[in-house]
Amino acid sequence: MADHPKQKSKGKLRGLPKDSSEVRISKTLSWILRHGAQSEKLYMRPDGFVRVSELLATPKLRTQLDFAGLQTIVENDTKQRYTLMSGPDEAALDAGDIWWIRANQGHSMKKVKLDLKPILSSTDIPMAVHGTNENAWRSISTQGLSKMTRNHIHLAQGVPGDGVISGMRTSAQVLIYIDVQKALDAGIPFSLSDNGVVLTEGDAEGFLRPEFFGRVEDRSGRPIAGWSPVSTTAQATENITSSHVAEV
What are the beta bridge partners of residue 207? Predict the structure, then answer.
């Protein structure tokens, strides 16, 4: 009789084998709070909070993390990814306050509706910039930024080295500066998370198109060769014209 396929352990931590246990625990915590609450059978409030007691009892974390360790992760997180607070439990209002935790942004679960601060003018923030790598830039330069499976496109209020704590990886090679006012005037909403990340759902298809890119530079501040707002618009016009001619 053939052996049954080996099932993936429900208690397996996220991350790479080379990662330290601390890093893997942190990645697992982030994944659960942003993407995996349902698969871990956790109740999540519409504002993204889950009960800490239930989180620490999940198969992935129950032997890896206690409340003191969770507090340490939250307090030492330089990007301020989490909010840990005490408050009433709507399922047992007479039982006193309990501990709740949520990720401040980055969710893919559609039911999560964070209490975000609307950005009404480009003057509300110093800038909005997205960091990416050269390979991803090839498609972004023509299609725009996509929220993909997440609820929002993430933008930072500065670049690494400016004291920015969240919204961009330090390994970013290409910096895309957004013309926020132009996008706002076009009806694209922007908001601010609790940890200072600029968020947007993009257009109806979930994209922030290249027409809203103010400038694009490498980490040294040099313009990316072959791209400018004018050339992008011209290319889009050329594509539309070519398509029209082909149809005729």
Answer: 146
CB 49 within 8 A of CB 109: no
The closest alpha carbon to 162, from 153, 154, 152, 172, belongs to: 172
Query: At 177, which helix (H) or strand (E)?
Result: strand 174-178
- Tell whether 132 and 213 lie within a shared domain: yes
d(CA 87, CA 109): 23
User: What is the model's pTM?
Assistant: 0.70
Alpha-helical segments (H) within the chain: 21-31, 52-55, 67-76, 134-143, 180-185, 229-247
Query: Is residue 77 included in any domain, yes or no?
Result: yes
Same domain as 138, residue 197: yes
Mean pLDDT by 10 residues, the chain (248 residues): 42 84 93 93 93 96 96 92 92 82 90 88 96 93 93 91 75 94 97 92 96 94 83 46 37
Domain count, the chain: 2
- Give the Cα separation of 234 and 173 in Å (integer): 25
Dihedral of the CA atoms 149, 76, 193, 62 (nearest 10)?
50
Domain membership of residue 108 (yes or no) is: no
3-state secondary structure of 111: coil
- What domain range includes position 150? 117-218
- Judgement on whether residues 70 and 123 belong to the same structural domain of the protein: no
Taking the chain, what is the end-to-end CA distance rounded to the nearest angstrom? Answer: 64
DSSP state of 234: H
Are 197 and 104 in contact by the 8 Å Cβ rule? The answer is yes
